[in-house]
Automatic annotation (TrEMBL):
SUPFAM superfamilies: CheY-like, Nucleotide cyclase. Pfam families: GGDEF, Response_reg. This is diguanylate cyclase. The keyword Oxidoreductase does not apply. SMART domains: GGDEF (SM00267), REC (SM00448). It comes from Metapseudomonas boanensis. Its EC number is 2.7.7.65.
Length: 302
């Protein structure tokens, strides 16, 4: 395991007592960067924007109380991975149970014992870093560093639901390297890996819009989720990707299509009224990819 790094930790303290914030900050300042908020509503907004590693959360506050804040953080996909420790003057089993039921990982009572607080925070920061590392391993493809198929399928289902709720267009691109078996046969498998890495880098450097996600979908296949994109936008994107890969000018002497590496792209878009399912979107993009292949490769079809 790589050395854990306090520099990347972000600790958010939500407490209506400025004295408590000051005290906790001075105790924890060498364990990460400290942010604070003096009420729950501001704390939630800050958590959504900054995605802290750990949140120390007071219970008794004006407006939302700590249990309500915790429950809200745990149901929001942008904040649900932040670990929450409830810090409260309320002692007693029923409070501890309420905290755990709201999704907190730990419960610390005031007045606090500084070494105990520091030790517990340290434990949860370590757990958070290990979880982040596991998530990285579970969601990424080893060769290219792109997301893997499992992750893409998961995100696509969520994005499909979100776009259906909001009635916004959503597109998917499936990309397949042309004559890649011949590439391997000619240049060797290790060089084939290098080629896939180059194509992966090219695709991911242009995926810059919020929510656009690129995955390695299979051996020499990639997929890109294109939020808020209709069929015309998808077609432009597909043509652009084909050009981008041609511009890499990776020699491919045994290709029947061109002397350099090319891709075929199949795209599908759902537009309002958004209906069907993520699986149907994948099937439609796959079908378009098949058409791009049979129409001569090195092209994008919606
Ligand atoms: P088409 O234009 O119809 O897509 O033809 P193709 O040769 O690209 O398609 P085919 O499915 O016949 O071959 C895909 C090849 O991709 C075969 C497989 O060995 C290769 N491949 C899959 N994964 C990897 C990988 O990780 N590294 C390398 N070097 N090759 C891979
Ligand atoms: Mg309070
Ligand atoms: Mg293929
Ligand atoms: Mg194939
Ligand atoms: Mg291929």
């Amino acid at each position: 395991m790589p050395e854990l790094d306090a520099g990347s930790n972000l600790i958010l303290i939500i407490d209506d007592s400025v004295d408590t914030i000051r005290l906790l900050s001075s105790m924890l300042k060498d364990q990460g960067k400290i942010l604070f908020a003096t009420n729950g509503e501001t704390g939630i907004r800050l958590a959504q924007m900054q995605q802290p590693t750990l949140i120390l959360l007071d219970v008794e506050m004006a407006g939302m109380n700590g249990y309500e804040v915790c429950a809200a953080l745990k149901t929001d996909p942008t904040t649900q991975d932040c670990a929450v420790i409830i810090v409260t003057a309320n002692t007693g089993m029923e409070h501890e149970i309420a905290a755990l039921e709201a999704g907190a990982v730990d419960f610390i009572t005031k007045p606090f014992n500084p070494p105990v607080v520091r030790a517990r925070v340290q434990t949860h920061l370590r757990l958070q870093q290990h979880t982040a590392m596991m998530r990285q391993l579970a969601n990424r493809d080893g060769l290219t560093g792109l997301y893997n198929r499992r992750y893409l399928d998961e995100v696509l289902s969520l994005e499909f639901e979100r776009h259906r709720r909001q009635q916004l267009p959503l597109a998917l691109a499936i990309i397949d390297v042309d004559h890649f078996k011949a590439y391997n046969d000619h240049y060797g498998h290790p060089q084939g890996d290098v080629c896939l890495q180059s194509v992966a880098t090219a695709i991911s450097t242009v995926a810059r819009r919020p929510g656009e996600r690129v995955a390695r979908y299979g051996g020499e296949e990639f997929a890109v989720i294109l939020p808020h994109t209709d069929a015309a936008g998808a077609e432009r994107y597909g043509r652009w990707l084909c050009q981008l890969v041609r511009d890499l000018q990776i020699p491919h002497q045994s290709s029947a299509t061109a002397p350099t590496v090319t891709i075929s792209v199949g795209l599908a878009a759902v537009v309002p009224p958004v209906e069907g399912s993520a699986q149907q979107l994948i099937a439609a993009a796959d079908q378009a990819l098949y058409l791009a292949k049979t129409a001569g490769r090195n092209r994008a079809i919606v």
